[in-house]
């Protein structure tokens, strides 16, 4: 979620976390310079990026998701996006957060770790 990324950029627990969040924000701006992220831009080769705003009621997606927990809201939004685009082969979640990866795995949500560097 962009709000969480912005929070990490400004108030992340370590300088490294703040710098990585700022780098991710700059990377998104670079993709935006290629075109509308709402429409879709090419990242590399066949990899395409499209952003959609998804703030859903987490419990309406899965009863055990807590709407007050950012990771649960991310999972709910990704699952809703996945259900709205069932034919798409999409890695919905890119994160280094191990607990978020664990939750994604528990619900069968594809995820990937971002490249180092």
Cross-sheet strand order for the largest sheet: 1-2
- Helical amount among residues, as a percent range? 40-55%
Structural class by secondary-structure content: mainly alpha
Shape: globular
- Run of helices and strands: HHEEHHEHE
Please outline the helices and strands.
Elements: H1 2-11, H2 15-32, E1 41-44, E2 47-49, H3 58-61, H4 70-84, E3 93-94, H5 98-106, E4 111-112
Parallel strand pairs: 3-4
Antiparallel strand pairs: 1-2
Helix pairs in contact: 1-2
Question: What does this 3D model show about the protein?
Answer:
This protein has 117 residues and is mostly helical. The protein has two domains: 1-51, no CATH class; 57-117, no CATH class. Helix content is 48%, strand content 9%. It is built from five helices and four strands, in the order H-H-E-E-H-H-E-H-E. The protein has helices spanning 2-11, 15-32, 58-61, 70-84, 98-106, and strands spanning 41-44, 47-49, 93-94, 111-112. The strands form two sheets. It has a two-stranded antiparallel sheet with strand order 1-2. Strands 3-4 form a two-stranded parallel ribbon. Helix 5 links the parallel strand 3 (93-94) and strand 4. Helix 1 (2-11) packs across helix 2. The longest helix is centred in the first third of the chain and has 18 residues, at 15-32. The model has no long low-confidence stretch (mean pLDDT 85).
């Amino acid at each position: 979620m962009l709000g969480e990324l912005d929070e990490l950029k400004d108030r992340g627990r370590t300088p490294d976390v703040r710098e990585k969040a700022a780098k991710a924000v700059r990377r998104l701006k670079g993709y935006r310079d290629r075109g509308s992220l709402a429409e879709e831009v090419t990242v590399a080769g066949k990899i395409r990026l499209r952003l959609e705003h998804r703030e859903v009621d987490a419990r309406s997606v899965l009863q055990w998701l807590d709407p007050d927990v950012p990771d649960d809201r991310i999972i709910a939004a990704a699952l809703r996006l996945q259900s709205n685009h069932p034919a798409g082969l999409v890695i919905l979640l890119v994160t280094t957060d191990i607990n978020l990866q664990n939750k994604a795995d528990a619900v069968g949500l594809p995820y990937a770790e971002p490249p180092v560097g």
